[in-house]
Amino acid sequence: MRLADFICPGAQKSGTTWFYTQISRHPQVFMREKEVNFFHRDLPLSWYAEKFLDAAEWQQCGDISPAYASFANLAERIHHTCPNALILHLLRNPVDRAFSQWNMARYLGNIPREVPFIEAFRDNLQYMRRRGEYAVILQEYARFYPLGERLAVFWYDDIRARPGDLMRDVMAFLRLDPEWASPDLLTVVAPSPEDGIIGAEDATEVAAYYAPFDRQLCSMLGLSSLPWSTG
Predict the structure, then answer these.
(1) Given this model, what pLDDT does residue 93 score?
(2) Which residues have C-beta within 8 Å of that of residue 183, sequence separation ≥ 6?
(3) Closest C-alpha to 66, from 49, 85, 91
(4) Do residues 83 and 3 touch, judged by C-beta distance below 8 A?
C-alpha cells in the first residue's frame, strides 16, 4: 500500500499552490492532486492509498494539504499512518498570511463579506488565528518528526527572492534529484482574488498577538530573526 512519502501541512496562503505547481512536475514525484485533505476527515485508509495507486516504485508520493496545520493533535494521526514521511512547512509573515486568508475566505463565501478582518481574526474564523501560530504547530509535528531531520521549514519570501535556490533546498530535503529545474519557477500562481491593504491598527494588533509565537519560532530554529522581522 503506497502512502505519502512527504507531506506539506501549510501554511495556507504561504505559497503551497506555487510549491505544488513546481514539485508535482518533478519526474521523481507522484501527485494526483493538491489538498488531499485526508487526515482531518473520517475516511478509510484505502481511500488515501488510492490517491497514490498509480505511482511508480521509484517515485515519491506527496500530499500538500494546508488544512493539516489547522487542527491540534493532527500530527499524531499523521505519524501513526505515515511514520517515515518527511514533513515540510512553508511559512509566511503571519500578519500578511491572515489578511490574505480573510480576503480569500470572503471571496469564496466562507466568511461573510461584512465581517471585518480584525473581527474574523479575533474570533479565529476558519482557524485564521491558529494557522499563524507557527511555533505551536511546529512543536506538535516535532514531537513525532525530529526538526532538522524529518521536519523542515522553508520561507514564502524565498519564492520571489530566490525561487531556484528554494526549490534546490526543498529537493535536497526530499532526497530528489536537485539538478532538475522547474520550467515554472517565475510563474505567479493563484494570485489573490481580492485587493486591499491591511489597516495599520489591525496590523499592529495582529503582529502583537503573534510576537511571542515568532520569538518562540526563532528559538526553535536557532535564528536571530525571521524573514518578516523588522527593527
Answers:
(1) 97
(2) 25
(3) 91
(4) no
**pLDDT 10s digits, 153-166:** 999 999 989 999 99
- How far, CA to CA in Å, does 226 sit from each of 101, 104, 110, 111? 21, 25, 30, 30
- Alpha-carbon distance of 66 to 64, in angstroms, equals 6
Lookup: cell for 62: 506527496
Q: Structure pTM?
A: 0.94
pLDDT in tens, 133-151: 999 999 999 999 999 999 9
Mean residue pLDDT across the chain: 94
Distance CA 39, CA 85 (A): 14
**Residue type for 129, please?**
R
- 48/90 Cα distance (integer angstroms): 23
DSSP 68: G
Q: Regarding the domain with residue range 6-221, which homologous superfamily does it belong to in the CATH classification?
A: P-loop containing nucleotide triphosphate hydrolases (3.40.50.300)
